[in-house]
Amino acid sequence: MTSQVSKTVLRLEAEDVRGLNDGINFKKNQEDGKCYIIYKVKDKIRACVNQCKHQGGLFIKDIEDLDGRTVRCTKHYWKLNVATMEYVNPPDSFMQDELEAVLSDTDGSLELVELNPPDPWTAEPREAQELHAGEITLTYITHACMELKAGNKRMMFDPWLIGPAFARGWWLLHEPPSDAMDRLSQADLIYISHMHSDHLSYPTLQRLSKKRPDIPIYVGDTSRPVFWYLEKSGVNLTNINVVPFGVWQNVDEHLRFMILMDGIHPEMDTCLIVEYKGHMILNTVDCTRPNNGRLPHGVDVMMSDFAGGASGFPMTFHGGKYTESWKADFIKNERKKLLNYKTQLVKSLQPKIYCPFAGYFTEAHPSDRYIKETNSKNSAADLNESIRKSCPNILTWTPVPGSVLDLALALKDPSNRRVITEPPNGTKIFKDSWDFDLYLDELKASASAEIFKYKSWIQFYYNWAGFKDYNLVIRVTETDDDFKPLKGGYDYLVDFLDLSFPAVRPKRDHAYEEIKNRVNVMRMSRDPDVYHHKFWNHFQTELPLSAPDWDRFLQIACETDVPNESSNACALF
What we know:
The chain is α+β, with helices and mostly antiparallel strands.
């Protein structure tokens, strides 16, 4: 099998994008002559190759179409509704393969992106065999961590068992089973979906490495490597396997898995298909558009995130429209949209069993009380109720730590009470303490590092980051937990047009953001109120893979800079 790749098949410049009509547009790639259909309504765009799935004919506008959504094949008059990507004549026949339409926030251009092959799991198909009770089980551990037992092999997904994620921002909602770390160290293999710290948990991996440093760990071949920080972390893991997308990885005679990329964030996000004796388990994890929206139908088990509330927007924004009532309405609407999207996704894929996971976190630290109370999230039970109303034939599972699903029993008789085994009565489900001091002492030590005694770390860091030639000025103010300026803390400006560090804002017209920065949360205002995707994307996914050479910085700073003994600053990102 060849590796799955992502390819831009058509690019339109901003002027061409502005020239798109509402409804159906036909476009040709002048380099290779291939034709595409772009459907535009308001600010939403869908696109596909202009080729009928029946016998490869070209589509043209349908003269009988009254609503501007349908095209007609020139060969046999098949009709495609481009708004839904469904063939309407003949009905119930095909779905058109959709391209990912990526609209740039920076220059207004549009790229149509294609995954090739689009459905690699169909390679080397295997017939589903009969399963015996206990042959395939899923045991929920906590958050996105699930243990899959298939035959005599055990596989763990995204183990976050101890400590915080995102500095001190997130903590585990559920208490992992008491033997969770032993289960992890005895697994045959581990899959880690991406580098976010609620999936790639260095406190967990640090403890694992002391027990079994050579445990096989598998990650996708993302352009932003999952383990880019491993060497600096001090965690000793010696058997990390980076595998290509869309290629079956054989574990034994019956068990194999395939890692797929996310269509929105292919540089860092992945999802997973596991197959055992022809039975498929789909784990989409946090992917926004897993495999560009093309996924296997009718899998035995599907798992996905559900909660929402993972972003700092809009809770950490203030000024202008960002009143408490506006935030509450926005969050409510976003939760509703996510719940409806997940319901429709499950309905379209028709898995036999659905389990919401990867959303069991809480903002437990007292300093984050406002965010916890404001940033309400969907519950797994609410999503499962929505799915049952829409798809009563799908078995839903709302897991608690230590609960076990037996796939063979579920397939034979979903109503069998033994399908799901709950943990014993009295088992602790929710955490009520988190050892804050144990982990926050490390954060405090980092914030007190010697590099922050020298003001020139600011220039050194942003020069290393390499973001420039963008008309944005930011002001960063170091604060305490209440977002009040820290006495002796840093307060500086960065002008990204020429990557300079002025004492006052420049007189030219420019976008401006104020960022009040404490240990793990930034409070923001911006003028104009525009999201600068290029800026944020750079600092989240495009920083150099080699960390700043702080040893070299200290050698220079000790000779040329005057130390600021009172600062506890930490870098913006």
